[in-house]
Amino acid sequence: MISQTGSFSVATKGKGTYEITDRVHDAVTRSRVQNGIATVFIAHTSASLVIFENADPSARSDLHAFFEQMVPEDMPGFVHTLEGPDDMTSHLRMALTRTSEVIPIQAGRLSLGTWQGIFVFEHRRAAHQRKITVNVTGV
Amino acid sequence: MISQTGSFSVATKGKGTYEITDRVHDAVTRSRVQNGIATVFIAHTSASLVIFENADPSARSDLHAFFEQMVPEDMPGFVHTLEGPDDMTSHLRMALTRTSEVIPIQAGRLSLGTWQGIFVFEHRRAAHQRKITVNVTGV
Amino acid sequence: MISQTGSFSVATKGKGTYEITDRVHDAVTRSRVQNGIATVFIAHTSASLVIFENADPSARSDLHAFFEQMVPEDMPGFVHTLEGPDDMTSHLRMALTRTSEVIPIQAGRLSLGTWQGIFVFEHRRAAHQRKITVNVTGV
Q1: Is the pLDDT at C129 greater than 90, yes or no?
Q2: What pLDDT does residue C75 have?
Q3: CA distance B73 to C28
Q4: Which residues on neighbouring strands pair with residue C135, listed in sequence order?
Q5: Enclosing H/E stretch for A48
Q6: Does B66 sit within 8 Å of C4, measured CB to CB?
Q7: Closest CB from C1, C99, C134 relative to B51
Q8: Percent of chain C predicted with pLDDT > 90
Q9: Mean of the pLDDT values across residues C68-83?
């Protein structure tokens, strides 16, 4: 039984989703764990994680458009606006998606479904370096 | 210290919530783990997990109605519509709820609150077989 | 490798966010785990968890205001209203945020980002005692 933790950085180019499935798979492979869990964590409050359909890019376009509509930048009444119109919406979109995800490992592989990918969801307009930490615990 | 992973299938009959608390409890009991964590994972992008009040069914009716209203099927502007009007909304409702949940185990039991149940939240109109994977890690 | 579970209680004073980062840190320190994961779980269906920006209180004010607007108390059509107008909205706000969070531990510390705090999100108007369970698994 081992528990192993490492981090990597994702360079985003502004709002959108960025797939990190392969990098999480790599962490699992390096750990040699056959049976256990992989915890993925994003160390930010204006970007989040989401497990989403990774086959048809139009699904992700609609995801982006939906959040622009549900949590619009020009929402009246925001107080926390010092860093610009995409500041507060970023925190809210993060709160509505995920900061951590835990995925079982079987036979040395993440037990993801056929259409599931793991994505960083960047909520700021500007490019950012986002830190992802992956822990693998198992046998 | 052990880490044990297994899966089961849930037959849904279209949109709604389907309780799986007992099946997760069974996985914990079979593992004989007394102290640790249970990870529940759903391997799909159009169904999700939610821990919700399981005493009064009216709470779940309101949950279903709320999502129909917040993420309606006829939302204008969706591009990802090949599989019908419930396709894209399913992905969005999944992104707004959960793909994984982790529940501590104490004295061989899930440490759920009195009114908490674990549910599969089916977002498609049609019946589906949904795969749930449960990992139990602990002593 | 150990897996250790404990609980503490948070006294809320009605709707709002209550930081528990230090108490989760304490559980990690007491466990002496250097490398692993901390699972935080809230045993309730009308309060939730959220990892949120903890530097500027105005961000949390906007979070509270946003949820009042997105899931208003006077939403027409709710059936589950026996416990008052904040009853059903509490369940929905909980479903839209988190019941569990898992945070990697490195060098004996939670690997949180600079601006990340762990909060109980109370959705009821009245004061409540909320039970938080923390499991620490690692080496």
Answers
A1: yes
A2: 87
A3: 45
A4: C5, C39
A5: strand A47-53
A6: no
A7: C99
A8: 95
A9: 91
The set of residues, in sequence order, having a beta carbon less than 8 Å from that of B26 and lying 6+ positions away, is none
Cα separation, A121 vs A91, in Å, equals: 12
Top residue of B39, B49, B71, B73 to mutate, by most chain A CBs within 10 Å, is: B39
Would you put residue C127 in left (φ > 0), alpha (ψ -120 to 50) or beta?
beta
CB–CB of B133 and A115 under 8 A? no
Question: Which of B17, C136, C37 has its CA nearest to residue A103?
Answer: C37
Per-residue pLDDT at B106: 98
Q: Which residues in chain B have Cβ-Cβ distances shorter than 8 Å to C137?
A: 36-37, 137-138
Per-residue pLDDT at C74: 83
In angstroms, the separation between the Cα of residue B123 and the nearest Cα of chain A is 14
User: What residues of A are in the B interface, CB distance below 8 Å?
Assistant: 1, 35-37, 50-53, 56, 58-59, 61-63, 65-66, 70, 96-98, 101-106, 111-113, 115-116, 137-139
Residue with tokens 């946003």: C66
Is the pLDDT at C24 greater than 90? The verdict is yes
State the pLDDT confidence band at B136, using cuts at 50, 70 and 90: very high
Q: What is the CATH number of the domain that holds C57?
A: 2.60.120.460
pTM above 0.90, yes or no: yes
A81 is in which domain, residue-wise? 2-138
At C95-113, the pLDDT tens digits run 999 999 999 999 999 999 9
Is a pLDDT exceeding 90 seen at residue B74? no
CB contact under 8 A, C35 and A3: yes
- What sign does the CA torsion over A39, A46, B51, C45 have? positive
Asked whether A92 and C53 are in contact (CB, 8 A), the reply is no
What average pLDDT does the structure give for chain B? 97
Rounded alpha-carbon distances, angstroms, from residue A83 to A14, A47, A91: 15, 15, 12
Q: How many domains does chain B have?
A: 1
Confidence of residue A75 (pLDDT cuts 50, 70, 90): confident
Among candidates C58, C96, C139 on the partner chain, residue whose Cβ is nearest the Cβ of A3: C139
Residues of B in CB contact (< 8 Å) with C are 1, 35-37, 50-53, 56, 58-59, 61-63, 65-66, 69-70, 96-98, 101-106, 111-113, 115-116, 137-139
